[in-house]
Structure formats: structure tokens, C-alpha cells
Write a structure and sequence with these properties.
There is one protein chain. The protein folds into 3 domains: 2-209, Jelly Rolls (Sandwich), CATH 2.60.120; 224-298, Immunoglobulin-like (Sandwich); 319-620, TIM Barrel (Alpha-Beta Barrel). It is 17% helix and 29% strand. It contains 8 helices and 33 strands. The strands form 8 sheets. An 8-stranded parallel beta sheet has the order 29-28-27-26-33-32-31-30. Strands 2, 3, 4, 7, 8, 9 and 11 form a 7-stranded antiparallel beta sheet that branches. Strands 1-15-5-10 form a 4-stranded antiparallel beta sheet. Strand 16 (213-222) and strand 17 (227-235) form a beta hairpin. Helix 5 packs parallel to helix 6. The longest helix is centred in the middle third of the chain and has 21 residues, at 400-420.
Length: 622
């Protein structure tokens, strides 16, 4: 390990001008404290930790050139950018939009000490959208990396020399009218679509590892069998078994040795501790393979759709009925856009939801940094994870634009699942939202069926809010949403590749009738707008659901919310399995959050909300 430490050299940075954020309408307290020295310094991959690593976040040089006439790597740079914040954000220090016909370039110096039997790995946790990476003149991406949502790793050992090296990244990001997922990014923000984000938006880091090493692992929990199954992916020359030790509060409780080709099970001790949002206990482990060693964690928990004692399909956490009550969480920030300012900022949002009596969030068409999910694991919050959607210009159920991107969508979807499969707080997948770039019946069913087969341990919500051909629902009277395809159940024994029938209704609430094959879920409702002066993204333009007349005052807002919760309790008693209120925070011109966009004002008394939510959970259990 000492050799590894020596192999990771100190970061060599060019002399920097004084950093300051770009102008922005709002700034969080965490953003106001941002410096190049404290920007995302924690280890980026909490479920597979090696002790020795190099953080490459901080000030880089950047340049913007034309896609059509750039002869090569820039010889002149436009200034400095604070990585991992995108140039459109305030915290980047740049504050300008990158156009689809422009290339965004980054460069910095790194220092390496290549050694026999070791490899130097360069990690990018998120780059939007198409990235080419160079060491000096040599491109180290054999194929440019396409996809903003998943991390990727490059073995740069053959390209670096001992001492100082020049690292360059070139990014192209079309955002609109292309095949990639983009979530709510838009070149023309409006309504519930927000400022686009280009380039590096998550951590960049480097580590030197043994040639024979653990590249990844899988974990599957068997509560009834009191066991955990592990699988390990190893690379390099074979050096024997993987040795595993499991710990409970630092005390070793299990050990095993696995052939990495087949993996194996670890028997958990009697009385093992189960993970819940109320008691989010995590087991830790250390895995050793030759000279390599990684630390990770897992949770003993299960989440499924099953019938309760009355024969109604509900969510079950660890075998017990559990009403999932949460918010739609966009994960956007006024100063960092897609990139949260810090761990503390992320923890604040999660802790605020828990303080208000929520036990779940729907992470809405965004994939967060892995440290975010680590906080959900440790603080205790269920996550329904959306797949970020593509271009929303067409809500038709089939068309050439949908077909053009379907194959790449499946590639991105699988990459998201691979990236997040080990996260215990994620308990359900949401492949489609409101028909955005959703294909026709056959391909929708194929997608949902793939997710179900690829991860049989989690329910699939789909489609969420529209274009549902899986069957088992009726439209409520007077509902204006027309994209819901009304179908009967598929024949007995034929696959309905979704575990939930999901309604979106503003303000709502309402539910699809309880049926015998899919749980009834309210995937979006509420959206009560409330203006808080001096905490607005754009004073001249605000937007919410259902008008502002009855929610203009804090008391009016509270009364309207409690009225929704009273109706929700009745639905929970009828068999509703869970609900998602819109939303955690205001976002740009949307003013329907529990908090303002800068997180400085919580619009509700958390004790009042917590009491109302307890009544809903109690009603679901009656």
C-alpha cells in the first residue's frame, strides 16, 4: 500500500486567479462557502472504497470552440473553471451557456509514477454528453464515451510518463433533439424544464491499483435465509480467491472465501439487523484479492409488492406492509444546477424530508452522484429511481424520433441499473415518465420486462403517469389527462411487466382502483404554489399547479396541504400503496416546493406535516 501511496503524486496546478462564483439569481449557504480547496473532496464511490486516491476536482483551464472549424486542441484557453460544476452554473465561476454547435475543452496537469504490476485509473463520475479524453497528444478513449448518467473509468497506464502529464477533455453536448437522455435540461428553460448543464458535472479522480484487482461486485440479500450472496468481477492475472469479512458496528460477524468466477453466500448471524428508514443500519465489509483491498457496505432489507391480510396489493418492507410517502425530488440547485454544492447540502434536503415525516422520495428523471445515495442509505430514506428521459417534444406513443433513440436509451438504462444496483435505499425503478420519448406498446413492455428480469429484487413502476398498456386501471371521472390508454388485464399467465399502476393528478389526490395484479400508486400530485419574496429565481415569472389564490399566505398554504392529506388518508385506507407530493423544493420558476430553491425557507411547520403524514400511514394499516 505504501508503493500505491507513492505512485499517486500530488496534483500539479497552474497558478490560479482568485476564484469567485459567476452571478446567479440565488445562492445557497453551502455555495456561498465554496472554494477550489473544498469542492467535492470526499471519496466519490462510498460502496467500493480504496484508502489511497487523488481528487482532481478544483480549478482547471477551459476553452470553448466551434464544432465545425476547430483544428485541434486549443492553444489558448478562455479562463478557469471549477470542476465538477458545469459552465452554465454559478459555482463553476464561468456562468455561460454552451451551445450545441460548440465544443467544451478542459485541461490540467497531473503527475504520475507508473510502476510494474500497478495500473493508474482515471475516473469520471459524470460528463454530459460525449467525452474524448487525452493524455498529451494521445486519445485514451478508444471510443468517445457517450452518456451523461453513468460513471466511466479509463486505464491511462500506457499513456502516462513518470512525472508531469497533460490531461485534456473534449465534450460535446447537444441537449435538445438528439438521442441521449437529458432529464429536465433545456436550452430554453420554461415551466418545469430548467437550465441545461454541459460537460463535467461530477467528480474526476485517480487511483493507482494492483494489476490484479476487484473491478466491481454484486450483492443480493436473502432475509428469509439469513444470508447474503456476493459476486465479484476481477481483472488481471488470477491470484486466488476473494476473501471477505463482514462487520457489525466494527465487530467481525462473518467471513468467507470465494472463487471470483462463481461467488458465494455468507451466512448472517442470528438476530441480524434489518434496514428501514426509521433504523437505517448498514453492515460493512472488507474484500481482499491478492494485493487489492476494498471496503463496502450492504443492508439487510427487502422491498416488494405483495397482498396484505385483506388481500390488497401493497408495498412490503422486510415482509411488513409499508406505506411509502414521499416527494418528487428534482435534485437541482440554484448555484450548482445538476451538481449539489456539497455533502452537507445534500444531507440537508434528505434530513428535511425526514423531519417532515416523509419516508421516501421519487428521484425525478435525474441520476445523482453516488455520495447522494450513500446519504439516503445512512440517513434512511427510500428512493424510487427514475430513468432520465430524452427529448420531450413528442408525447405520441410511437414515432421515428422515439425509434431513433430507443437502442441508446436501453444502453443508458442498463448503465444506470449497473451503477446503482447495490444501493440499498433504492427500492423501485421508474423507466418512463409521462410518455416522454416512450415508445409504443411492444417496446414499452420490452423495457419494463427487461428491468424486471435484470433486477428481480425491486418492483418496477411503469409507466409513470401515461401510456400504460399493461392493464388493470380505469380513468376517474372528470380526469382530463388523455394519454392514459385504458386496457383490461392481460390474460392469466401472460406477463404484465409492471408492479404498479401509477396515476399523476394535479392537484389531486386520486387513485386507480385496487386491482389483483398491480399496486395502485399515486406517482405525482399536489404542486401547491407559494411565493416567498426575495427567494425567487425570476421575480417576473412564477409557475405552479392549480393557481395561487388559496395558497398565497402561509396559513392558506398549510390549510390547502392538510386538505390534500386528509383526502390522501382516505385513499390509503382504500388500498393506495404510496404517494409522491410535488415537490421537495422550488426549482427555477417553479414555486411549488416545500422549500425555496435556495433552501433558506421551509414553507411549512415540519411538526404539522409529520403529524398529518402519520395519520396517512396509520390509515393504510387499518
Amino acid at each position: 500500500m505504501r508503493n500505491t501511496l507513492l505512485a499517486i503524486a500530488a496534483i500539479v496546478a497552474a497558478p490560479a486567479l482568485a476564484y469567485k462564483p459567476a452571478p446567479a439569481p440565488l445562492m445557497t449557504d453551502w455555495g456561498a462557502r465554496m472554494t477550489p480547496e473544498n469542492a467535492w473532496r470526499a471519496y466519490p464511490r462510498p460502496q467500493m472504497v480504496r484508502p489511497l486516491w487523488t481528487c482532481l476536482n478544483g480549478l482547471w483551464q477551459y476553452a470553448v470552440t466551434s464544432v465545425t472549424n476547430t483544428p485541434g486542441r486549443p492553444v489558448k484557453w478562455d479562463g478557469e473553471i471549477l470542476v465538477p460544476f458545469v459552465p452554465e452554473s454559478a459555482l463553476s465561476g464561468v456562468g455561460r451557456q454552451i451551445a450545441p454547435d460548440e465544443l467544451l475543452w478542459y485541461t490540467r496537469r497531473i503527475s504520475c509514477s507508473p510502476r510494474k504490476g500497478e495500473r493508474i485509473l482515471l475516473h469520471f463520475d459524470g460528463v454530459d454528453f460525449l467525452a474524448q479524453v487525452y493524455i498529451g497528444h494521445a486519445e485514451v478513449t478508444d471510443v468517445p464515451h457517450a452518456g451523461a448518467q453513468e460513471p466511466f473509468t479509463l486505464d491511462i497506464t500506457p499513456y502516462v510518463k513518470a512525472g508531469e502529464n497533460e490531461l485534456t477533455v473534449c465534450v460535446w453536448d447537444p441537449t435538445d433533439d438528439f438521442i441521449q437522455s437529458r432529464g429536465k435540461q433545456s436550452l430554453k428553460p420554461r415551466g418545469c424544464f430548467y437550465t441545461r448543464a454541459s460537460g463535467i458535472w461530477q467528480s474526476v479522480w485517480m487511483e493507482t491499483v494492483p494489476e490484479s484487482r476487484i473491478e466491481d461486485y454484486s450483492v443480493a440479500v436473502d432475509l428469509e435465509g439469513s444470508a447474503v450472496s456476493f459476486g465479484f468481477k476481477v481483472v488481471g492475472p488470477r491470484v486466488g480467491d476473494v476473501f471477505l469479512d463482514v462487520f457489525e458496528d466494527g465487530r467481525k460477524v462473518a467471513s468467507a472465501a470465494f472463487n471470483p468466477d462463481v461467488g458465494g453466500k455468507v451466512a448472517m448471524p442470528a438476530g441480524f439487523r434489518r434496514w428501514t428508514p426509521e433504523e437505517p443500519f448498514l453492515y460493512t465489509f472488507k474484500a481482499r484479492y491478492g494485493r487489492d483491498s476494498v471496503d463496502g457496505y450492504f443492508a439487510m432489507r427487502s422491498f416488494a409488492v405483495k397482498k396484505d391480510s385483506k388481500g390488497v396489493l401493497r408495498f412490503h418492507l422486510n415482509g411488513q406492509p409499508y406505506f411509502a410517502i414521499g416527494t418528487l425530488d428534482q435534485g437541482w440547485w440554484p448555484d450548482g444546477l445538476l451538481t449539489p454544492p456539497s455533502d452537507e447540502a445534500m444531507a440537508h434536503d434528505i434530513s428535511t424530508l425526514k423531519k417532515c415525516g416523509f419516508n421516501m422520495m421519487r428521484k425525478h428523471i435525474k441520476v445523482e452522484p453516488r455520495r447522494y445515495y450513500h446519504l439516503c442509505d445512512t440517513l434512511g430514506l427510500l428512493v424510487f429511481q427514475d430513468m432520465p428521459s430524452g427529448n420531450d417534444s413528442s408525447r405520441t406513443p410511437m414515432g421515428s424520433d422515439v425509434m431513433k433513440r430507443y437502442g441508446f436509451y436501453r444502453h443508458e438504462l442498463k448503465a444506470m441499473l449497473d451503477n446503482l444496483m447495490k444501493v440499498p435505499s433504492i427500492v423501485a425503478w421508474v423507466p418512463y415518465n409521462e410518455g416522454w420519448t416512450q415508445p409504443g406498446e411492444h417496446l414499452t413492455h420490452a423495457t419494463l420486462d427487461f428491468v424486471r428480469r435484470y433486477d428481480p429484487t425491486r418492483p418496477v413502476d411503469g409507466p409513470s403517469g401515461a401510456w400504460d398498456w399493461e392493464g388493470g386501471h380505469l380513468l376517474p371521472n372528470g380526469w382530463a389527462w388523455t394519454n392514459r390508454v385504458e386496457t383490461a388485464h392481460r390474460p392469466a399467465g401472460e406477463c404484465e411487466a409492471s408492479d404498479m399502476v401509477d396515476m399523476h393528478l394535479y392537484r389531486g389526490p386520486a387513485m386507480f382502483a385496487v386491482n389483483d395484479r398491480r399496486a395502485s400508486f399515486l406517482g405525482e400530485f399536489g404542486g401547491l404554489g407559494h411565493v416567498v419574496s426575495n427567494h425567487l429565481w425570476k421575480v417576473s415569472s412564477t409557475w405552479g399547479y392549480g393557481g395561487l389564490a388559496d395558497t398565497a399566505t402561509p396559513k392558506g398554504l398549510e390549510n390547502a396541504y392538510l386538505g390534500l392529506m386528509e383526502k390522501l388518508a382516505g385513499l390509503a385506507a382504500q388500498g393506495l400503496a404510496g404517494s409522491v407530493y410535488t415537490q421537495t423544493t422550488d426549482v427555477e420558476i417553479e414555486i411549488n416546493g416545500l422549500m425555496t430553491y435556495d433552501r433558506k425557507v421551509l414553507k411549512f411547520d415540519p411538526k404539522v406535516l409529520s403529524a398529518a403524514h402519520r395519520k396517512i400511514i396509520e390509515a393504510a394499516g387499518r
